[in-house]
Amino acid sequence: MRRRVGLGAIQQQKLAAEKYKDKGTVLQESQLEQMTKQMEVFRVKLEEFAMKHKEDIRKNSQFRKQFQEMCAAIGVDPLATGKGFWSVLGMGDFYYELGVQVVEVCLAANHNTGGFMELDDLRVRLIAARGLSSVHQEITKEDILMAAKKLSIFGNGFVVHKLGKGKYIVQSIPGELSMEETNILNAASNTEQGCVTPSQLIEDLGWTDYRAQQALDKLLGEGLCWIDKQTGDEPAYWFPSLFPDRRGRSVISSK
Amino acid sequence: MAEYPWPWQYNFPPFFTLQPHEETRQQQLEVWADLFLKYLKDKNRFSLSIGDQNSPLFHNESLKRRLSPEFVLTILGELERTGHANPLDKRRQEWQVYWFTLEDYGNMVYDWVQVTGQTNTICTLYEIASNEENSHLGFYGVDEAVLLSALRLLEEKGRCELIEMDGSHGVKFF
Prior knowledge:
Chain A is built from ten helices and six strands. By secondary structure, chain A is mostly helical. In chain A, the strands form two sheets. A three-stranded antiparallel sheet of chain A has the order 1-3-2, sandwiched between helices. The longest helix of chain A has about 55 residues, at about 5-60. The radius of gyration of chain A is 29 Å and the shape is elongated. Chain B has two domains: about 10-95, Arc Repressor Mutant, subunit A (Orthogonal Bundle); about 100-175, Winged helix-like DNA-binding domain superfamily/Winged helix DNA-binding domain (Arc Repressor Mutant, subunit A, Orthogonal Bundle), CATH 1.10.10.10. Chain B is about 40% helix and about 15% strand. The interface of A and B includes residues 111, 232, 240 and 243 of A. Chain B: Pfam families: ESCRT-II.
């Protein structure tokens, strides 16, 4: 084939490129239009769904869990978006309300727990505090975690610590827990009674004698644990919030 | 005899060690003071001896934890501060402990005297504390020694006069 040369050919190429570009823009526009349409449809459907199932959303813990998973998958924080169409679901309100209740329950029990509460314990107390109708009863640990985690934006007065093995502890007094302290809490939560000794820390965490004692003294100094000097051996350090007997009694007496 | 309904703290081993942290210790003392009063009320007792180391109140046998005499003294000191206990000897080993404060007892007895119109008559302490008709009143069954202390307080205010008769006491209210 003969190569096309000359001014005419260049102009033709330019023209073709322009045409392609135009076509591309048109395509893009139509795609955007379609996407917008789809989003619009989605929004309308979601709103319809929300209107229809508003009560279910408040009641159904399973639904909330799946909704949370969906939001996580598409990168939307249902609580951060107070405006916009997510709010029609009333998801935010549910968690805000729960968050306030979490604070109330934790603060009311602070004198007893020393500022720590296990998530299971918190759930039992929340349910007791929320009234007897089934709407209020169906709250899962995920719901509480979601609500409690939001509270951390108010500073370090309210923090959720993960202790491993699916256990969480909610701290409701100001102050940051150091890594050491978190590790100790973790070790204590794995014992039946919720107590640790220095030698246990030395053995389990590979700490030095000095480090273990320092960390325990710090916890004691902050009023987060109790010391037992009558073990016959080295002292033991106890966390009231992890002591099983306390929970048993407190649940009964609160009814 | 039914087991006393101990609070959960009674089974919490560090509860028997005086806590070094100021706020924690204050809480601990409050719970102990409350437990002392409730326990003695339940047993209808009005005295405590620090030397009585085998009392279940000082000694949780299954837990192998006990209150040291110093700790007991601290708790009783707390009760003394709130008007619920009084040492009987100089060494502060024997104590009178009472559910209501002496002032409360005095007022309750005086109210009862007024209501039943017994002013200007003489009653014995036994009549006041052990009268079956008074079983609904707070001072029913009160230890006579405690009652005597309460009446002495009332006497100081000029509301009654204690009279000694053959070693026992009578009282005249005004």
